[in-house]
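queue> pop job 88
queue> type: inverse folding (structure -> sequence)
queue> payload:
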């Protein structure tokens, strides 16, 4: 079977091109807002060029002595008008472009999460939760910055620089040539800087993933840490990961920190050249004082585009690096999908058939199941038992298509499960796994999970059937009690019983119980089983268990060993046959007597 991997099969250049293409596709979706933002930004840059011309005119008239006090207010009013227009336009471009970037980031997060929901269990077995969290949060934020400030810096920096240079050439082309001599040096620096930022930022984001995963793992296992008194050791490990993140960030910051001062150095060099040559031109009468004043302001305007260029390179490299990391997940193809002509399940019965099913989790592993064949008639209860590692839970996972069985080996109502619509197939089951996951919500919300409208009386009815109602009523907030992350406020047995109630509320056509009574005592188990007999009447039921007391009243018991069906029959028939089942039953009987005696 195919192994899911986030490895980089493409070259760095291919990844960057793909990242830029994806970013541009988002811009294209919001092109109306982007275009309006760019138009307003162009107006800002155009208006910004007027102020030096106003000052040039004022300085020249003052130098010639042809201006009076009454002539000053119009100049001040003109500068104020320019400021007002720029203020309004800056608000508008902020609204159009920054809002667009927020919408793009929301769409990326939505698509990313939606894609994750389509991926198979195999993907999540090979992926770290912390890494996925970092990609959907930190990397999406980096892309948002590239889409928001990035487009602003491109348009604002390029247009303002081009316009300022054009006006400088118009005022005095010779002086413009001298003042712009440092620009080729800047070009070389920017190209080198961009490459270094891209590689170092990818290292930083990878470190963020590792740190997030480590912290998440520590929080999830906090009780184990405290029990084994490993707080100090875990703190040291977190510090090591954190310092790794700091060191990678420092490598990035050193590059960025060196670039900005270099920009100011080149800007100062241009200004020095301009003052030296421009002062000479004024003394020689080749330009006016007003021309030199305007030229100085336009050269100062170039400082921002030079800084913006560095910032732009930084943001774009960060954005493309992060988009590349997001694309690595988005490019993973879902292994388990609906076939083009997927069929719907009939609304009545649900007959399950296994036909010579052989399954291995990967090509390099031995089969977990070998030539397994049995069927479950509608409304019947079939139990699957065996030693640990016999393949019992694998049968449940194949029924739910968490993994795909081989073609022609697993059928429901005569149709290969691979040809059924995924939604229909999984809606068929009420599933209770051994490791019962609860959401950090109230008990009532966990029981009602998947049901949009359900009254509390129904919730309580099924809570009673799973023998959890009494425990819930003992909690201070009853059914409104928040269970905490992964149900940390409840014991293992309580979580299993809440999960059973959640499955029963669904009113499934097939109830699939995967060793879901392993954490409850025998007395509670007997009560639950007694209640379940009433609940599962007419429901096809599969009980996967290693505790044989939970399966004695099944219509048929399938005994698995080393992935193969070794025995089948009722409880009484299997005891008479002897073999694996009889040995397991005798062993568990002894264990129960010893537990009672102790």
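queue> result:
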């Amino acid at each position: 079977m195919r192994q899911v991997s986030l490895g980089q099969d493409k070259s760095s250049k291919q990844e960057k091109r793909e990242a830029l293409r994806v970013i541009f596709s988002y811009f294209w979706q919001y092109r109306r807002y982007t275009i309006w933002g760019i138009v307003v930004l162009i107006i800002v840059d155009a208006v910004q060029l007027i102020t030096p011309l106003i000052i040039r005119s004022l300085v020249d008239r003052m130098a010639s002595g042809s201006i009076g006090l009454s002539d000053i207010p119009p100049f001040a009013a003109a500068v104020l008008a320019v400021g007002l227009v720029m203020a309004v336009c800056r608000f508008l471009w902020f609204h159009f472009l920054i809002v667009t970037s927020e919408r793009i980031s929301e769409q990326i997060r939505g698509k990313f999460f939606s894609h994750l929901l389509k991926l198979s269990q195999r993907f999540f077995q090979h992926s770290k939760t912390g890494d996925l969290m970092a990609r959907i949060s930190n990397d999406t934020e980096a892309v948002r910055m590239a889409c928001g400030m990035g487009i602003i810096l491109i348009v604002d920096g390029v247009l303002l620089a081009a316009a300022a240079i054009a006006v400088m050439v118009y005022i005095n082309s010779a002086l413009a040539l001298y003042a712009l001599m440092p620009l080729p040096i800047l070009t070389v620096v920017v190209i080198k800087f961009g490459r270094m930022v891209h590689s170092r930022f990818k290292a930083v984001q990878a470190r963020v993933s590792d740190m997030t995963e480590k912290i998440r793992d520590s929080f999830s296992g906090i009780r184990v840490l405290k029990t084994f008194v490993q707080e100090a050791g875990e703190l040291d490990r977190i510090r090591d990961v954190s310092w790794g993140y700091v060191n990678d960030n420092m490598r990035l910051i050193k590059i960025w920190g060196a670039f900005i001062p270099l920009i100011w150095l080149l800007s100062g060099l241009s200004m020095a050249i301009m003052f030296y040559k421009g002062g000479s031109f004024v003394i020689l009468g080749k330009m006016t004082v007003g021309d030199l004043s305007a030229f100085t302001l336009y050269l100062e305007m170039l400082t921002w585009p030079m800084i913006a260029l560095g910032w732009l390179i930084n943001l774009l490299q960060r954005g493309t690096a992060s988009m590349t990391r997001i694309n690595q997940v988005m490019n993973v193809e879902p292994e388990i999908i609906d076939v083009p002509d997927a069929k719907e399940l009939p609304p009545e019965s649900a007959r399950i058939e296994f036909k010579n099913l052989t399954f291995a989790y990967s090509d390099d592993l031995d089969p977990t199941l070998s030539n397994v064949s049995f069927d479950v008639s509608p409304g019947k209860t079939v139990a699957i038992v065996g030693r640990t590692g016999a393949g019992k839970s694998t049968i449940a996972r194949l029924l739910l298509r968490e993994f795909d069985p081989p073609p022609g080996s697993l059928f429901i109502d005569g149709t290969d499960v691979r040809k059924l619509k995924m939604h229909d197939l999984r809606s068929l089951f009420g599933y209770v796994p051994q490791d019962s996951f609860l959401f950090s919500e109230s008990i009532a919300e966990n029981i009602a999970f998947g049901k949009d409208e359900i009254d509390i009386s129904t919730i309580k009815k099924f809570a009673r059937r799973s023998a959890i109602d009494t425990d819930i009523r003992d909690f201070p907030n009853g059914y409104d009690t928040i269970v905490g992350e992964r149900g940390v406020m409840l014991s293992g047995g309580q979580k299993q019983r809440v999960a059973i109630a959640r499955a029963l509320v669904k009113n499934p056509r097939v109830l699939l119980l995967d060793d879901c009574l392993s954490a409850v005592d025998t007395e509670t188990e007997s009560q639950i089983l007694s209640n379940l007999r009433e609940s599962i009447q007419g429901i096809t039921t599969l009980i996967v268990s290693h505790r044989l007391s939970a399966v004695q009243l099944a219509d048929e018991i399938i005994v698995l060993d080393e992935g193969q069906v070794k025995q089948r029959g009722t409880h009484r028939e299997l005891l008479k046959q002897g073999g694996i089942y009889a040995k397991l039953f005798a062993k568990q009987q002894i264990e129960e007597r010893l537990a009672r005696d102790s």
